[in-house]
C-alpha cells in the first residue's frame, strides 16, 4: 500500500487541522481567559495569581516547543497525545481547588497544546501543498479563533447561569476529550514520517530564519497581555456579565473570520508582508484600552487583537517554512519556541506592576513598543532580497 493511498484529501486535512487547533488553542491555551473572572468571583483568585497561572501555561508552551525541536515527534503522534492531554488536564482543573495544582495543570496543558500546534502545522500544511490547496491553510488556522469563541461562549453562559468556574472547567475538559477521541483514527499514519535524523544529518536553520524567529518573539510578548486579561479588565469596568462576557467571544469570532478573509483578500501578498501589516493593527488594538478604558475601546481591542494574532501566527509559520530549509517540525518548533519565550514575559509584566492602579496600561504600552520593534526587524529582514511568495 502506497503512502498516497493513506493520505487524506485536502478538505479532510483542513477540517482535522481546524478541529485540532480549536481544542488545543481554544481550550488548552486560552480557556483561562474567559474563566478567570469566574475564578476571581467564586475561588477568590487575584489578578496577580491569574497572571501566574497564565505564565505557567506559557512556560509549558515554550517547553513543549523545545521538546518538539529536540525530538521532532511524528506529527500525527504529537496531535493525538497532545489533544488527549489537553482534555485530561483541563478536566482536572475543575476537580481541585489548590493554586499550586492549578499552576501545574496549566503548565502541562501548555506543553500539550504546543505539541498539537507544531504537529498540526507539520501535518496539515504539507498535505495542502501536495494537493495544491495552500490557500486552505486559512481554514486550518481559523480553528484557533473558533476554539476561542467556543470557550468564550462557555464562559459567557457560565457567567449568566452561575455555573461556577469548576463546572466550566469540567465541561470544557469533557469537550476536549470527545474531540480527541473523534480525531484519533482520522489522523491515520504519519505519511511523510519524520524519521529521527542523526545530529549530523539535521540541517541547521539559516540566519534569516532565526532573525524572523526573534521578530516572532516580540509578537508573542505584544499580543498576550490583552489575550490574557481583556475579559477580567472588562469585568472590572462593566458590571453586566452579558456585556463583559461578550469580549472573549468577539475576540474569537474576529480570529476565526480573519484567517479566511485574509487568505482571500491578500492571497497575492507574501507572508512577511502580511505579517508586518497585521502587526500594525495589532499594536493599535493593544494600545486602545490602555489609553482610554471604556466599552468601545475594549471591543476595538478584541477585534484588532483577535483579528490579527492568528493571521500573524499563520503568516509566521509560512515564513518559517519558506526560510527554514529544514524539516517542517523543526522550523515550526523554533518559531513556536520563540513565540513562547516572548509571551511568558507578558503576564509577568502585568504582575510586576500588580500594585499599581495602571498595571494593565503600563504593560500594554511596553507590549506595543515591542510590536513596533519587531516590525522594524521584519522590514530590515525583507530588504536584501525582497519578498518571495511562499
Which helices and strands, and how do they pair?
Blueprint: H1 3-6, H2 10-29, H3 32-42, H4 47-71, H5 75-93, H6 99-130, H7 137-161, H8 165-184, H9 207-237, H10 241-244, H11 247-265, H12 271-291, H13 295-324, H14 328-352, H15 359-381
- Please tally the β strands and state the result: 0
Which structural category fits the helices and strands?
mainly alpha
Radius of gyration: 19 Å
SSE string, helices as H and strands as E: HHHHHHHHHHHHHHH
Span of the ends, CA to CA: 32 Å
Strand content: under 5%
Q: Mean pLDDT score, rounded?
A: 83
Strand count, sense and closure of the main sheet?
Answer: none
Quaternary structure classification? single chain
* Global geometry: globular
Count of individual helical segments? 15
Question: Which percent range fits the helix content?
Answer: over 70%
| Unreliable stretches covering 5 or more consecutive residues | 1-5, 192-200, 384-390
